[in-house]
Amino acid sequence: MTYCRTGMYSFGNWKKTFCGKGAVEPILLDTNFVTVLLKSDASMSGTGFNISYRFVLPPCVRTYITGEGHLEIPEDKSRRNMLIRRRRWCFRSARGNSYQFTFDYFELIGEPPKCRHMYMKVLEKNEEGQVRSHSRMCGKLIPEPVRTRSSSVSLLFLSDRPLDKNGLHVSWKVFGCNEEHHATTGKLRFPREGIYTGFPATCRWTVYANSGQTVQLTVTKLNLQRCGLEYLRIFEGEGERRTLLDDLCRLDGPVVITSTRRILTLQLRQHALRRDTMEASYQMRATPCGGLYEASEGSIVSPADLGEAEGGLTCLWTIRVKSNYLPRVEFREFTFSESENCSSGYIEAYFLNRGSHMQLMPRRCSAEPPPPVVGIDNEVRVKLHVEHRDSLTHFRLRFRSVCETMVIANRTGGASHSFGFPKLYEHESECSWNVYAPKGK
């Protein structure tokens, strides 16, 4: 008779014998060590087997996403001893962050490094999905803190013996300032409680909108000192395929930025810790077509679905800056299909004077971007009209407030005064006075 036997020494000495022909049902073992034996009391001719195996992690009993916390194992203190064969606790943070686990009470059976009957270890998974295992921990000596390199980690506990109710106590902290946001609205702030990072630091916030939505971001506070080395950069998308929307250092007022894609990324670089470095808020928008932008600077992009517009589409954006300042609009990207009298689609800029439209930029429909536009008062309106589906139509503009004034002199001359100098002017202000003399002068 020929038979094969599989045996396992660690964790329970489980044994099972198989013989005959045919496949065997898969076996799930509560261990990471298995011995397979083949024994025969007759000729081996025509006898054999094929075995495939893989390491399967137990499911997470709980997933923690907080920046710090404390965990006691076992959680149930009602019994003196408890048998926990397999247990895994998972921890998730934004990509680029890392974890540190520390132990303030530790009493497990066994001696490292083998830890045959009971142990805990830290597992971490990199972005390629590869799992790295730290050394087993057991015994009664409190282990050294464990620091990971990944933001996706778990604690794995295996045992074939009862665990004392005091078991072990573990605390964790997230190191790094990266965050991921999926809620429809939210606030972004740095520094904040529960963030541990060294300096100089690079922090990244990634906002994910739902399908069919985009992200509107409002930056209300930014306190950076060294503009050559410190910055807040705002990107559309993530990774290598992202597009830079804005590069900020200091603010004269709120900045509003709208994306055309469903992912918006903020990257903050800071060389020293300061109070109230950055504050911003975001909201997801279902239809990014027009709206009021009341800010000192910002960017606006055309809707992403112009190639699917049925029966025409008209969008109106109103840009409003502080009183005594003028909005300056510059088109960074501009692509339109040329047509006679711009009948297929156009963009124009104007302001309202006693209810009437006063053109600042006539209708434009060409491949070349128009020159910068400066308003007459503190408000400019930008209108986009598309008559039918046009996947080529696209623009991206950037606006900011400038202190520019138009002066029309009388026949004898005149004078122009700055607006409350020096209190009104903010940093990096660009001011000009355009003086127009009467005809013949």
What report would you give on this structure?
Keywords: Disulfide bond, Repeat. Pfam families: CUB. Residues 60-175, 177-285, 289-402, 403-441 form the CUB domain. This protein has 441 residues and is mainly beta. The chain folds into 4 domains: 1-56; 62-175, Jelly Rolls, CATH 2.60.120; 181-288, Jelly Rolls (Sandwich); 402-436, no CATH class. It is 0% helix and 47% strand. The protein has strands at 2-7, 15-19, 35-40, 62-64, 68-73, 81-82, 86-92, 98-106, 118-125, 131-133, 146-147, 152-159, 163-164, 168-175, 179-181, 185-190, 201-208, 214-222, 231-236, 243-248, 255-258, 263-270, 278-285, 291-294, 297-301, 313-320, 326-335, 345-353, 356-364, 373-374, 379-386, 394-408, 431-436. Strands 16, 18, 21, 23, 25, 27, 30, 32 and 33 form a 9-stranded mixed sheet that branches. Strand 28 and strand 29 (356-364) form a beta hairpin. The protein is elongated. The protein starts with a strand and ends in a 5-residue tail after the last strand. The model is unreliable at 1-12 (pLDDT under 50).
Strand runs, count: 33
Mass-distribution shape: elongated
Unreliable spans are: 1-12
Mean pLDDT, all residues: 80
At CATH level 2, the architecture of the largest domain is Sandwich
Which secondary-structure class do the elements indicate? mainly beta
* CATH homologous superfamily assignment of the largest domain: Spermadhesin, CUB domain
Number of discrete helical segments:
0
CATH class of the largest domain: Mainly Beta
